[in-house]
């Protein structure tokens, strides 16, 4: 490492300098001189004199004067300028902390478009005004100071601490570049190539990175507040402890990225891909993740208070210890997600108003999570049932796997609610489960390509389910028992009265006698006021009512067990 106070001129006394312009010979020479970053032949003396004169010009922001304003520079020019920078002290060596306060090469106002600048030591490069200079300059003065760097190639270049704020860098290549602590705030970086670039502690506030490629980029502790990252490829990127507040990253790809401890408050991440991403202890409060994919994402201890996750894919996501209070999850898929007792679900919204578009909850690992803070009354149908699309127009049979998944979702949720003492909510979801099975039987029975035997069998089962629903709500609707009992007594009393009037006109049953006969038959012991009936119709009716009474007794026992013993 060269000393910060000594100039470096390792080639001046070297007699082996190539006399031709052959690039390979010059590259070998620069390698021998320990200047591996130099690749071009030495510029001629006239060009050297011109550049030396330009370097001597003092910048004047007010008048828009800069050493290389409106001058097109080549890589060979920059190599010579770097070596003679600051009276032959050479380029800034970022690894030497004593040199980090030095000023880098001043290329403000220059034209470097489409120049290949790979592996050059451009630490502390000045391509725009600093923040202090910017605040006191006019719009015209700010524009004059910006270097033109579109389509440049900075691959493997050292740009640590470079001043590139608000510079036009569209389609520029920064592959494997070293850009720690660089100032890229409000820079125009559309469609740039930043694969595996090192941007630790860099300033990218309000930068426009639309369509850029940032695969495996290192952005630890970087500040990307309000940056635009729409459609970017950020797969396997590392954003640990980075600030991404209010970024716009719709449809970006963060798959396999690491965002542990990152700050994404109020970020716009609609339809973003976060599959298998690590988001542990990340701040996602008030973030917009509508339609995003977080399949198998690691969200342990993440802070998502008030986040919008409508239609998001959270299947098999790990949410242990996460704060999901007041999170919007309407239409989201949480199948197979992992919760634990430290997960906070207070006020979480699994559906929109009136239970519309509920989340899918099959196979969730509830693991003693607190479910008391959720308003379950607004949920009328789980998203797992919605996926079956059991509307009146459906002619084909629903997918058996989806049917099993929907039934399983209701049972699992009811079990979790019962474990937490929420029996009323559990009974309501079990009732919805049986109603779902009844609807599935009806759809299956209406299929065209099934045998009549199977159709009749399905219709019998469907009719049985329907009767159980009407008469007792599958044992979960206690309020239906009394109307069912009274309706049955009245119906058979009316039949007894009509039958006796028709078959025994001389001694017909009075209406109160018919009702008394109906009550006694329903409870298993028919009695007659005068004499047993001479016709078999009344005998048959009493037998039918006795059977119904026996079934009704079973329903009462079932309701009592489920209502009071919580079975």
From TrEMBL:
The keyword Membrane applies. The keyword Membrane applies. It holds the Pfam family Pentapeptide_4. The chain crosses the membrane at residues 456-476, 482-503, 510-530, 536-561. Keywords: Membrane, Repeat, Transmembrane, Transmembrane helix. It comes from the Bacteria. This is Pentapeptide repeat-containing protein. It comes from Dictyobacter vulcani.
